[in-house]
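Side project, low priority. Logging it here so it doesn't get lost.
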Amino acid sequence: MARRNTLLVFDKSARVQDKDAGTTGLRDAILEYVHRNPSAADTLRGVMNCWLPAHFIGTEAKAVELAMEQLVAKGILRKSVLADGSVLYAGTAGRRRRLTRRKNR
């Protein structure tokens, strides 16, 4: 009986690792978009429709949101909640560049 429980725990942790591995491709695609478009800002729906390459069509919103939240946690993206409750994601590079320019004036 103890072996079976151990096996179930192992299977469950493997799925968690696979889920994280799945967001790596999404994170890379988002990073590439933000690198090319440093002042980009959009909602989750906009990110799914405009920021991601075609091979991500059909990706669940929860997976994209998880990837975005991971990038927010790392300080690569910033997240703003608008007055209507919608969430806007934006790259931080464009913001840093604008702040640097202001300091140099």
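Brief comment: The helical segments are 2-36, 44-51, 61-73, 93-104.
Revisit when time allows.
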